[in-house]
Amino acid sequence: MVNNCTIIRMLTEDNIYGSVVTHGFAICNHWHSEMEFIYMEHGRLKIDVDGTLYEILKGQLLIVSANTMHAFMEVETDSVIWVARIYPKNILGNLRGEENAAEIYRSTLLIRTTDRMKTIFADMLNAAYGRFNECYAGIKISELTLEILCNKSTIKQYIPIRTVENSEPIYKMQQFVENNRFKDITLTMVAEYMGFSTAYCSKYIKKKTNLNFLDYVNSIHLREAEELLQTSDLSMTDVSYAAGFKSVQCFNRTFKKHRGMTPTEYRKALKNKK
Hints:
alpha+beta; Jelly Rolls; Arc Repressor Mutant, subunit A; seven-stranded mixed β-sheet; four-stranded antiparallel β-sheet; 11 strands; 27% strand
């Protein structure tokens, strides 16, 4: 469980945007098609990457490859964590001619940051608060990549990764849940779609994510809700519906259980930090 910490998140689709999350926060096993940069500004974080637990200390950076299963497990109280997500092509597109750039991102990396890297992250933080545009933030991540290439001795650990392929059942399950979030999704529906028995489907989800079926579905809905709370002015009713929850009451209850605060408190925390 991630408690009483600040997570500065810069999430990307085609854009980069920023937000700050405080208080209770738990991120279960998940993956995404973007790479994830996790910088420990202050404190200590334990993160599970593909079934192996790693510890990130103050001043260290973990770069998680795209499509890699990972989860935030434990965090020291009052930690400050910076998280940026960006598609690999958006980084490499700014680094044409740097053949090693693609190579270093084939593994997850644990890095001891230089002063220059910290400066780049400070600039990225400004971008997260909306003082610079998305293009600027993307350039800064590319600049960080070049700094890593020029200082390979700062790489403490290469972590071999088995990525989640598009053909794997867990990927197809997630796509099914996302595409059918307006329906009352049941274990039977997912099992039938996958061609599994309900018992096997339940065990498979537990093995892959360490979650029961209901919590797995809710984790997908919650990630969608968070992004809507961060990037839109939709009402709580509209956010709950768009994210796939049955009702506002269910949305509030589930969000509070897994994030340690209500959706309204979450949005207020974001605005107070801007």
